[in-house]
Please model this.
Amino acid sequence: MAAHRFLSSPYVSVERIVETLASRTAAQCVGRRVLAVQDTSEINFAGRDKKRRGFGPGGNGTTAGFFIHPVIAVDVESEAVVGLVDAAIWTRGREPAEPRRRRASGEKESARWLAGCASAAETLSGAAQVTMVADRESDIYPLFAGKPAGLDLIVRAAQNRKLAGGGCLFEALEGAPCLRSCKVRVAPRGPGDKGRVATVELRAGKVRIARPVNSRRREKLPRSIELNLVEAREVGAPAGKTPLLWRLLTTHGVAEGAQAEDVVQLYRLRWRIEQTFRALKSDGLALEDSQLVDAERLFNLATIGLAGAVRTIQLVDARDGGPRPASDVIDEAFAVPLERLSRKLEGKTLRQKNPHLPGSLAFVAWIAARLGGWNCYYKPPGPKTMRHGWNQLAARLEGYALATEMQNV
Model:
């Protein structure tokens, strides 16, 4: 009942939850070189849409559902998820929308990409460098034209755009020399796929893309925009595998092979947001199975779920050790109860001891895994174990905080 009252409160909203989470992320990103990774995921209630209220059609045009578009910060050096930067959550109207080409950029769902860029530039202004990374759906001309100052872009090209000097984008690097070959880790593509390491040849150069013919003139978009193009083409792909081919439009310099490789490796980290979506849905929180029926309350729950998914990924990242401090996910005031919990959960053998330094995120991850039911003699804990363990840990720390407050009183 208390949870339902919280989600229904007029003082609780997606915007306020995101603002609170983003302020913490901003503080953690100061001085770091970070990526602002954004993407969209759908929550579809196929087979579970009865009694749902306030939802329009999902991606299939019929079943009730809604969409989540988060921006997460990823540390370039450690490749770790730092936190949530922004999030948009919406459902589509049931009335047919005006044809896409008649609408201005701000009236389309694609405006979320521009809003994500603007939010990242503002929220992460204290970072040493910010680069927005996104997949092919973000390949829209207004995004390149409206890029905020102080923010770089890496966008996977989806459209074979016309070039200002003639020709098309996908043929721009034909005949260009190979700058270097490098290894790229390809993320798993589904159940049973463990991923692989691909060998790619890199080519790069400057391109000037032309404004689309169907752009609305009143938006005053520039006639052309100069960007850099990096092409990563796999050689010697395994039998039965589609060769990797990435065409990346970027504002980063790519004059040398090392620079082109850096762009490719940064784009590879876009997969971190896919892992966050899995932790939010099938691999962790199972948001699609929520019993809430009202859109407003479920939107609030989805935003809190995003925070939980990010926390889960952070704990999974830290399970094997690392230099990240516990303060990335938990207040320093809980150092004492964490050490007491660790001793209580340890066994007599060396393998049953917490091997990580107190004050590290790995130390917290070990505690959460044990509380979640992980047996240290078996495989490393996954997202579901970490999620269960974090719930247990949060409850115990809340009890500790309450007891401390009562003693002070």
